[in-house]
Amino acid sequence: MKTSLYGKQHVLVESERNIDYAYHIQKETFLDEKGLQAEKDDLAIYRASFMLTKEGQVNQVILLDHRFATTFK
Question: Mean pLDDT, to the nearest integer, of 21-49?
Fold first, then answer.
């Protein structure tokens, strides 16, 4: 998977096997790390995590709210 498909400027985490994005559902916009830190309503933010194979193909997508992503609650 290439970050150029979804925008490199909004990537929160990028590694060989993982790419993460954050999206604010009320503002209808992606958040970068700075924007994510400034937000107080962690239930209005969704995290999308794309798990990649060795070949760079997406084999798993995880979607969860930011609160659970950071606290597991």
Answer: 90
